[in-house]
Amino acid sequence: MSAVEIRQTTLTLPAYAPGPLDPEPPLLPGFGPRGLPIYPYPTIESYATSAAPRSLRAVVLENQYLRLTFLPELNARLWSIYDKLARVEVLYANPQLKPGLVGLRGVWHATGLEVNFPGSHTVTTADEVPHEVIRGPGGAATFVAWDVEAVSGLSWRCATTLAAETAAVDMVTDLANPGELPARYYFWVNAAFPIKPGSRYVFPPSTQRIFLEGGEHPGELGYLDYPQHEGVDVSVFENLRHHAAHFATTPDEGFFGLHHPSDDTGVAHVADPHLVCGRKIWSWGFAPDGQVWHDALTDTGGPYCEVQSGPLRSQIEYRSIAPGQVITQRERWIPLRGLGGLSWATNQVAASWRYDGDQLLVRLLAPTVLPGAVVGLGDQTAVLDLGPAAVEVSLPAATDAAALTVQHAARRLLRAPLRQPRQREWPRLRAARVTAGQRGRYLEWQGRWEEAWRAYRDGAEEEAPAAAGLARQALLRADAAAATQWAVRAVNLDWQQPEALLTLALAARLEGDPDVLRWSAEQLLTVPAGRADGLLLLTDLALAEGDWELAAARAEQLQTERADLRATGRAAHAARRGGWGEAWWAAAPALLPWHLDPLLAAEAALCGRPVRLTAAAQLRAAGLLRQFGDPDAAARVLRWDAAPSPGTPTALLACAAAWVRGEASPPEVVWEVGNCAGPLAITVLRHCLEQDASDEAARYHLANALAALGGWEEAATHWAAASDGPWAPEALRNLGLWAWQIGQDRAAAEAFYRQAVAAGGTPRTVEERDRLLAELGRHAERPALLLAALGRFPSDPRLPLRLAAAELEAGDPQACLRRLTGAGFQLYEGGYLPQALWTRAHRRLAEAALTSDPATAAQHYAEAARYPAELGVGAPAEQRHSELWFRCGEAWQAAGRPAEAQAAWQQGADPGFRHAPHPLPAAELIPELPARGVSAGRIHLRLWQALCLHRLGRRTELQTVLQRTAAELRERQGAETWQAALEAVASGRVWD
Length: 992
Fold this sequence. Notes:
The protein is α+β, with helices and mostly antiparallel strands.
């Protein structure tokens, strides 16, 4: 048996270089690329317009069947799985690094396989993360990547293994919460695959319908019948005309995958269906608005799709991961070759079959060689040698045969039922009452801190969870007094409320009150849901008091009772301080979870183990070491070179080193672009200011950290103090954001933004000031502002778009169109602003010409409905401009050209291609979602479509559209406002 070859190499690809990091902190979710919370990570919202060679470090694992290539500098993604038997690339190994602004922070690359935790296209998707390669038993090799995410403090570790004699890839991903409070998480493995002629995705037989995110109304899902929906095979990618995220609705079988008939290759994904119940297929679709993405994300790679897996059923679901908890996902990817399709798969065997008269033709493939495997169907059997090359067998298709089976060495490897499973229904759940605490937690998970605070506050007098939510938010801002106040309130409402007791204990520790800390911990021991937290707090107390034997015993008990991630690090610390560290490490398992627990990683390094910490992990570990009375070790940890960690500036580590020694920050500390987050950072920065009140860097970053957690009032005082120094542009911009979004004082906000621009503000500052001027209605000032900024930042893609909008609102639609024509805008996920400006500009020109020159007006209405390629968007498969086509027809009619009028109305009446999903209320999955309301845009579109049908005299179709619209309006919020419109359309009157 030959071992897997491991080698380090360099991969050179044409790359469109990412733009600079944005120095303005994304303090509010709505002010980032995807509208989600990403602070403290800086955004990257531009990239080069031409490619240049980029050399990337690559790690290659190779056996006789497969060659895997990993790129540590791109989130350690698995860029390539090359099938040496079929001589094809399994993954979508994009031959160019051509990004789109799809990631949480902006730049993202469509290539290979990436880990998304705890958010979609996560904060490190285009960054380097630490990694190592481990030699395993039997010659196997494992590539391990990990990170500590700074937004949530959660950690992850992904281990990808290639065995010596196996044509499959095994992945084990651990998701962990090494912190002290519950955190919101989301996890999907996202693998990109090429789309070839006839490519189709395969869900297992029990999947008879698939659901899509977002139906026609807010707060809803839609579902399609699978594989045939209204006469269309929706499993064939070429039949998917519009953007689609398809989720399987049943977890009965443990596989799904892809098949490419053009070269008879594909892939099967296998996992425990109850632990990995999330199965998603994503496609941009083959209408022009999907093709534009295929073209924009590669130069020569062609179309691709995404196969995603995760522990949640959909991507509108988020869950809470408890302190100390580790969630593990195990999965296997099996490349297919010569199988003729995919009917079933397990870890050991992939199969496809079809009937040929009274015979069942079966093809089988195994990732490892299995000589003498027994294939059975009823009482018929055949003996075959299975392996990575597909083999075929023909068996009589007995009518009483329930399943196809494969056995090897008396072990059953596959049992595939041949009968079609019964039709299953989605469970109808009763509506649950959502409490203030539940609503606040949901809003907090969305990063909507201010709304969450208000929701908690509304219920804090009556609900212990709501009061505990206020305590937790105060604690995250390092406001121990407020945290104690609300935690006491929660405990008085319910003395067995575990989160309230935990928050009270943590606030007491922050205030240096060991008596309240001990009392809270002891109370937690009496509450089943809080026992693990109570044990941990008592362990930490023993460590802080220097009772190493007691601490070790409590850590062992914690590990025994709940397998708490944090117990091992505490045990290692007690062993080192107690003098039995070498014996402890000698007896420890070979692979400890040090990647997931910063304290354990630091203890390993302090004992001479070769581990590497990120800056976020170093900061977390140093805080704990100081808490346990070991400031010298904390200082040592903070002085080590950090692995790349874009969410935690290395300058903060220098400040923390001064904090643990009780000193002022050294004057040579240089702050790179980046931000500080979390209670520990706030504590460190407060210490810096106490030692040196003139430390403007500490003051500015403290303000950012406070604001990111809702502490805007205090933050504003610090920004004001820093607004005339080196941080003036950023501080003034942040003051403007505070006055605008929090204080709702647009006039004051505009004054701050004006000063920020004058002080040298970046394109983001200019863009935000322009948005503010637009809200104030001061459109005449906007073009001059943006033209001046374009002179300073000619390559920034945001400014020309804002300038086109400003020229339109300033009353010059022709200037707007000149700005848009030939511009070649970069793509934004779901961003249709260039096309919206194009439409509005032509519409205004049409309205201006309508009375004097209706023919010109008609031409502008028709142009308004176009999607020129330079706008960075493409025409969707479905009709979205029925109103424009109706008005175009009216204008042609007024111009005396009835044939052109009829043609325009025909365009508006045509709904285009669209899979019409059946409704599935999302509130049944997530009760905290708002109640269903009317989708005004969709109803508006249908009404104009009906008017076009009326002009064409197509009464039957008109009635069908109106009846469907009326049915959708029934029992929906706001439906009454549309009844008059329905009546007007039914009578043929133009509705406006």
